[in-house]
Amino acid sequence: MTPTHNLKGALLSLGAFSVYAAHDVIVRYLGGNYSPMQVLFFASLLSFPLLTLMMVSGGGANNLRPVHPWWVAVRSLTMVGGGTCGFYAFSTLPMAQVYSILFTVPLMVTLLAIPILGERVGLHRAFAVILGLIGVLIVVRPGAEPVSLGHMAALAAAFFVAMQSVIARRIGNEESQIVMMLYPFVAVFVTMGIALAAVYKPMPLIDFSAMGAIAVMGFIAAFLLLGAYRSGEAAIVAPMQYSQIIWATFYGIVFFNEKPDFATLLGAGVIILSGIYIVVREAFAGNSENTPVLRTRSRAIAPGGFRVSQVLRRKPQ
Fold first, then answer.
1. Helix (H) or strand (E) holding 263
2. 238-264 pLDDT, tens per residue?
3. Do the beta carbons of residue 236 and residue 61 sit within 8 Å?
4. Domain residue ranges of the chain, discontinuous segments joined by +
5. How many helices and strands in the chain, by DSSP H and E?
6. How would you classify residue 228: left for phi > 0, otherwise alpha for psi between -120 and 50, otherwise beta?
7. Cα(first)–Cα(last) distance of the chain, in Å?
8. DSSP symbol at 183
9. pTM listed for this prediction
10. What does DSSP assign to residue 144?
11. Residue 241: DSSP 8-state
12. Residue 183: phi, psi to the nearest 5?
């Protein structure tokens, strides 16, 4: 690809993650008043028309039987866990801390790819994983600061997102787009609907509209990310996700009076460095058949989002 294509891909990716950051501001606002289960339920409900459009355009509506039902079931459960934990983390922690912890997804993908994809982790990537874990310790500061349920939820969300990505890499070439999109969506919708009976609070129209905005923004961000991966190389596009720490700092100051301390920014920098190193190794070292981190193309906790890699599979990049 030409430098122009890579520049376009990078700019589209920056746009996608700026929309995701605004999406998370609304999640944080709603999380102060409603349970994550209620927010997820209505965001999923309101995203249904958009996702239906994506599924219909992908074809294969008559093939709803999974080729790998157990893997599809596990991935669907990780969508439930990732969304719930991610939304809870955003509602209880400063945005910069949440992003710093979510940036560990490439590290977890690297580790999970060993048992699930049969990947080998050499010395370089092992060093990057250890470096990233040091960054997490800097951000969380166990012992110096109390480790809250929000920190644990953010780590769990990162794990669930990594699981989704690795499983999608394992079965994505054999499962249809509609299976990969429909079953996780139904799992989120049904489980959140059941939980809604215990956590529901009446909503004014403005908050209901905000939940609709979450659905639409998740879809728009995923669409921009799709354009980014169609335009540029994954090694250029993927690191753009780290721009979210800038948005998190800005939005945290403007809307929530959150000023990230030095330890959070230092830890985030260490985690980002380790993630970029893994991406560069996968892109240029040529020692990975699956390149699992480079193929982690969807953020996977936004209900309105769709699986970017599944759409890319149907059309040439």
1. helix 262-284
2. 888 999 999 999 999 999 998 888 999
3. no
4. 3-314
5. 13, 0
6. alpha
7. 10
8. H
9. 0.88
10. T
11. G
12. -65, -45
3-state secondary structure of 148: coil
Q: Is the dihedral of CA 280, 286, 288, 290 positive or negative?
A: positive
pLDDT band at residue 306 using 50, 70 and 90 as cut-offs: low
Phi, psi of 293 (to 5 degrees): -70, -45
Q: Hey, what amino acid is at 298? A: S
Contact 113, 166 (CB under 8 A): yes
Q: What letter does residue 34 receive in the DSSP assignment?
A: S
Give the whole-angstrom CA distance, residue 93 versus residue 12: 28
145 — phi, psi (to 5°)?
-130, 145
DSSP 272: H
pLDDT digit string, tens, across residues 196-240: 999 999 999 999 999 999 988 988 888 898 888 888 888 888 888
Is the Cβ–Cβ distance between 294 and 166 less than 8 Å? no
